[in-house]
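hi! just following up on the protien thing from before. the input was this:
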Amino acid sequence: MKITKDLYQGSLALLTDFYQLTMAYAYWKSGKSEEEAVFNLFFRKNPFQGGYTVAAGLDYIIDFCRNFRFEEDDLEYLRAMKNEDNSPVFESAFLDYLKSMEFSCDLEAVEEGTVIFPHMPIVKVKGPLLQCQLLETPLLNIINFQTLIATKAARIVHAAQEDSVLEFGLRRAQGIDGALAASRAAFIGGCSATSNVMAGKLFGIPVSGTHAHSWIMSFDSELEAFKAYAAAFPDKCIFLVDTYDTVNGVRNAIEVGKVLREKGKEMLGIRIDSGDLAYYSNLAREMLDEAGFPNAKIVASNDLDEQIITSLKMQEASINVWGVGTKLVTAYDQPALGAVYKLAAVKKADGSWEPKVKVSQQSIKINIPGIQNAVRFSKNGKAVADMIFLEGENLSKSQHMIIDPVDPTKRKKINTTGLDQELLLRSIFEKGKKVYERPDIHQIKLNAERNLAQFDKAHKRLINPHIYPVGLEESLYELRTQLVFKMKNYDGA
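and the predicted 3d structure came back as:
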């Protein structure tokens, strides 16, 4: 099957906040537009009060950057903007600059499906200051949402244990774009299939679905509806049994299942969409087993999330497949990840890089300066710790000290002997040219599975997870501290 790439075929250069354009104009006006800079995209807290986050959205970023340019109608729109005195907001020469501008940045990012943590760089952009600035809003828009949904999906799949989870959220998603991005991210996070047919076509995700209550209600009886559906889809019969009475619905499904069996076909299962899911699934399981259908699946839906699934598991509900919609695709309990994009370094006239830091009264909001990468230490396939470090740091040292970015009293020594090392940022664009071989959605999903398997179950539990160690390499911590003191005009004495 040919999978569609470049979901948005044209430029989305105006998908930005207006202040990005005003800053771009001011950079140009002050002669700074071509100065080189480095920006890092990162987040400060794991979502859902969890212990990890799953990266997603890079494929969209690749498409965005490949098509990043200002079209003539974009420039006409900007040209028509006026100040209060009716003068143009942007000079014609600036608009000509935008017209001729070609994407020329280096871009590094963690691969989709990678388990990531607060403060580590997810995306690093190096290039002309003006271009780096204009990428802020779209990159945040893409990463914030898809990473949030991939993480939510991973939590739900973890709660479901070995059962399949189906994403059913299209009708409740935040618009068409939100629905497509959510279906994609949910599959990366571990869902088996989606109800979203367009997502299936665009991304190569398996699609799944049977019928709704309206199908049953359109017939004179539930039994008649089941028979008609079985005639149409004899190989894919999962009957929705709770339109009128769940117990009677199971009886009718069994009756039609026996007719199918006489024809050499097999009923796949039933779905329950309301009521006491634990009670009715267990009762349905007994009825199906007694009737000779031990392999028939029981699918449950109805505003499920990881907490409800965990509760149903504890109640020993006889559910094999979970259909999760609203609370997955809307990230119902935390609707935003909160990733940010901060200037980390600028190149001086002599060619050296000057690290930059944003100072705040809240230590969590002090960014990490300099040109960074992150490395994951592991042993026998199990993650040990992650270290954020400055490029050029000697990773072959036998020991590193990592320091928590927020609480410097939390420190950990890492003896690297016998440990494997994995650099987390991969080169995606070099001087505006794509150098990264894009994996397909199934490879990305597999990457997420492998990444999650690296972490102890204590890091993945839903409530009060054990904190996985992530810290700044000691010299990076010292650099940040010195810069903060300098910016506050405090010498530390």
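The domain at 18-68+103-149+348-487 is CATH 3.20.140.10 (nicotinate phosphoribosyltransferase).
The chain has two domains: 18-68+103-149+348-487, 157-329.
cheers
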